[in-house]
Write a structure and sequence with these properties.
With about 450 residues, the chain is α/β, with parallel strands linked by helices. It is about 35% helix and about 15% strand. The chain has two domains: about 170 residues, Aspartate Aminotransferase, domain 1; about 250 residues, Type I PLP-dependent aspartate aminotransferase-like (Major domain) (Aspartate Aminotransferase, domain 2, 3-Layer(aba) Sandwich). The radius of gyration is 22 Å and the shape is globular. About 50% of the residues are buried. The structure holds pyridoxal-5'-phosphate (PLP).
C-alpha cells in the first residue's frame, strides 16, 4: 500500500526517525514481554523514558517532553519532589520491605483518615484494583447482599468485578453490562449491575434493587468524562443509597489528594460509607487503601466479634518504602495552602484556552476537565456522559496525539491527562499552543 500521501503515515515516520533508541528497545522487548505495550500506554511511536523531573520527562533518545501523564495520576506534586526523594533515600538505608508491621503504617493511616471525610479506619493494599476489590468484598460481607452496581463509563481497576462496560446498543438510561475482554466468567454478570452515570434514572434502579444491592461504586469524577457539574447528582446519589440501605463506595483512586486534599468527597461535599484510594496516596509508589466507617471496616478485623471476617492480605501491603513516600507527599500537600486552588486554576487555564480555540474554529473537540485531570474528547455537541462519545473520530484522535508528541507533549494510551504542582503557567501555555497547533494540523488535513 502506498502510504506516502497519508498525513498519519508522515508523522509516524518522522517520530520513528527521531527515536532510534526507543524503536530498537521496542523491537527487542516485544520478543520478551507478552504485552509489551498495554493499551493504557499505547503510543504510535514508542517512547522509553530515561528520567523525570518536575513537569518533564526525558526519553532514551534525549528528547524532552512536558509530561501530562504524571505516572497516570499519582504525581500531584510533579516528578521527584524533594520531600519524597529525601524520605525515600532515608528509608532505603533502613530497609524497604519486612512483611512485619512498621510504625509508618499508622502514621500514613492517620494522615489518610484526617483527609478522608468518611474515614474512621483504614486498610492498606498495593493498588487501586485491590482497594476496589476489598471494598466490594467488605460491602458484601457487611450487608449480606451480593450485587454491586457500577456506572456506565466507569473504571475501577482490573479485577473481574470491575471489568465491565455498557453494551453500546443498550438503553442509555438502563445500560446492560458486558464483560470487558476475555477470561471473565459469565457468572460475574449475576453479581454486578450497571447504572447510568449523571442520570436520575440510576436512582430508581437502586431503589428497585435495594434488596439485592450491597453497594454502589462510583468515581466522583469519571476519568472518561471529567467534569465538575456533577455535585448535585452525587449528593442525591448518596441520599438515595442511604435511604435504600445500600452502601456508597466512593472510588477516590484518582481524585483523592488531587481534586482537593479530601478528594471528591470534600470537593463535592458528598457522604460515603467507604472510600478507596491509590495513586497519590503513595507519593508515587504502588499503593491502595480502603477507608470508611468503623462498623463497616470491622469486617476486616479477624480479631473482632464477627462470625466471619473477610480475608485480606498482601506481601507488600504497608511496606515501609511506600509508607515513607506517602507520608512525605501527604504532609507536603496538606501543608501547602495554595496547592489545590493553584492546581485547579492551572487545569482550568488549559481547558479554557483549548475550548476557546475549538469553539472559534468550530472543531468537534472539548477539553473536559475537573481541576487538574483532563480528557480531550472528540465529539460533537454537549457531553453528558461517556455515552455521548462516538468512535467517529478515533483515527483523528490517534493522529492528534502523534502531532502532540512531536510538539514535545506526551499523553499516551487512554489519553487521560494530568497536570501537577510542578507545571508552571508557561508549561500550561506551551501545552495549549501544542494542542491547538495539532488540532489545526488535523483540520488542515481534513481529519476533523
Ligand atoms: C478510579 C480508579 N479506580 C481504580 C483504579 C485501579 O488502580 P490501579 O491501576 O492502581 O490498580 C484506577 C486506575 O486508574 C482508577 O482510575
Amino acid at each position: 500500500m502506498d502510504n506516502t500521501a497519508n498525513p498519519a503515515f508522515d508523522v509516524t515516520k518522522r517520530l520513528r526517525a527521531t527515536s532510534p533508541k526507543s524503536v530498537a528497545i521496542h523491537e527487542e522487548a516485544a520478543r520478551v514481554m507478552a504485552a509489551e505495550i498495554v493499551g493504557t500506554v499505547e503510543i504510535a511511536c514508542p517512547v522509553y523514558i530515561e528520567s523525570a523531573s518536575g513537569s518533564r520527562l526525558t526519553d532514551v533518545d534525549g528528547k524532552e517532553y512536558i509530561d501530562l501523564t504524571m505516572g497516570f495520576g499519582p504525581h500531584v506534586l510533579g516528578h521527584r519532589p524533594a520531600s519524597v526523594e529525601k524520605a525515600l533515600a532515608e528509608q532505603i538505608t533502613r530497609g524497604w520491605h519486612w512483611g512485619i508491621h512498621n510504625p509508618l503504617q499508622h502514621r500514613l493511616g492517620e494522615l489518610l483518615l484526617e483527609a478522608a471525610p468518611c474515614g474512621e479506619q483504614v486498610v492498606f493494599c498495593n493498588t487501586g484494583t485491590e482497594a476496589t476489590m476489598y471494598a466490594i468484598r467488605a460491602a458484601r460481607a457487611f450487608t449480606g447482599k451480593s450485587v454491586v452496581a457500577v456506572f456506565d463509563g466507569s473504571y475501577h481497576g482490573v479485577h473481574d468485578y470491575a471489568l465491565l462496560v455498557a453494551e453500546r446498543s443498550s438503553d442509555r438510561r438502563n445500560p446492560a453490562p458486558r464483560r470487558r475482554g476475555a477470561g471473565i466468567p459469565s457468572e460475574i454478570l449475576e453479581t454486578v449491575a450497571m447504572l447510568p452515570y449523571n442520570d436520575e434514572a440510576a436512582f430508581d434502579i437502586i431503589r428497585e434493587n435495594r434488596d439485592r444491592l450491597a453497594a454502589v461504586l462510583v468515581e466522583p469524577v469519571q476519568s472518561s468524562n471529567p467534569r465538575t457539574d456533577i455535585g448535585p447528582w452525587l449528593r442525591e446519589l448518596a441520599k438515595v443509597c442511604r435511604e435504600a440501605g445500600v452502601l456508597l463506595i466512593v472510588d477516590e483512586v484518582i481524585t483523592g489528594f488531587r481534586l482537593a486534599y479530601g478528594g471528591g468527597q470534600e470537593y463535592f461535599d458528598v457522604d460515603a460509607d467507604l472510600a478507596t484510594y491509590g495513586k497519590a496516596l503513595g507519593g508515587g509508589l504502588p499503593i491502595g487503601a480502603v477507608a470508611g466507617r468503623t462498623d463497616v471496616m470491622s469486617v476486616f478485623n479477624t480479631g473482632s466479634e464477627r462470625a466471619r471476617p473477610i480475608f485480606s492480605g498482601g506481601t507488600f501491603s504497608g511496606n515501609p518504602l511506600t509508607m515513607a513516600a506517602g507520608i512525605a507527599a501527604l504532609t507536603e500537600m496538606r501543608d501547602t495552602p495554595d496547592l489545590y486552588p493553584r492546581l485547579n486554576g492551572l487545569g482550568d487555564r488549559l481547558a479554557e484556552a483549548i475550548n476557546r480555540h475549538a469553539r472559534q474554529h468550530k472543531m468537534p473537540v472539548t477539553m473536559m476537565n475537573a481541576g487538574s485531570m483532563f480528557h480531550l474528547r472528540f465529539a460533537e455537541g454537549q457531553i453528558r456522559s461517556s455515552r455521548d462519545i462516538t468512535s467517529r473520530y478515533v483515527k483523528a484522535e490517534h493522529v492528534f496525539y502523534q502531532h502532540l508528541q512531536e510538539c514535545g507533549v506526551l499523553v499516551p494510551g487512554i489519553h487521560l491527562a494530568f497536570v501537577s504542582a510542578a507545571h508552571s503557567e508557561a508549561d500550561i501555555d506551551a501545552v495549549a499552543a501544542a494542542v491547538t497547533a495539532s488540532l489545526d494540523t488535523l483540520r488542515n488535513d481534513g481529519m476533523i
